[in-house]
Design brief:
148 residues, mainly alpha, Four Helix Bundle (Hemerythrin (Met), subunit A), two-stranded antiparallel sheet, 6 helices, flat
Length: 148
């Protein structure tokens, strides 16, 4: 049982294996939700009887697409975290190399930065003129529309 106590970036092999299982489960949940959402995006002609129905359908589809974009971003983060598990760098801050810490990883399994680096990143974002770059298609389109 000595190998279970060996630490890698502040985590034991058993803890890393648990996080890997949780990340794989999250990935499977997102992928299953994406399949359901794709089926749900299909609109029948009966649903488009008049302009009000068409407008309502457009709003519903737009909302589903935004949610789908968020899920895509989450899936990307989960895949990156799983890659770090395989590389042996899971739990290591991508900025300074310090241990991210068990509490932070339990709260956010896809965390790439330790608390200190994340706080610094957020401080810089708050000080910048533009703040954070948009992460969703809806925000990107909204920004382009407001510029025009």
């Amino acid at each position: 049982m000595a190998t279970a106590n060996k630490k890698q970036h502040g985590l034991t092999k058993m803890e890393i294996a648990r996080f890997k299982r949780e990340l794989e489960q999250k990935r499977d949940e997102v992928l299953m939700g994406e399949k359901v959402m794709r089926m749900d995006l299909q609109t029948s002609q009966e649903d488009l009887m008049d302009e009000a129905d068409l407008a309502s359908s457009d709003i519903d589809q737009s909302m589903r697409m935004r949610l789908g974009n968020r899920e895509f971003l989450l899936l990307k983060k989960v895949e990156q975290a799983l890659a770090r598990v395989e590389e042996g760098t899971y739990g290591e801050c991508q900025s300074c190399g310090a241990d991210i810490g068990m509490k932070r990883l339990e709260a956010r399994q896809t965390a790439e930065l330790c608390i200190a680096c994340k706080e610094e990143e957020e401080r810089k974002e708050n000080l910048s003129v533009h703040g954070r770059k948009p992460k969703s298609l809806g925000q990107t389109l909204g920004a382009k529309l407001s510029l025009g």
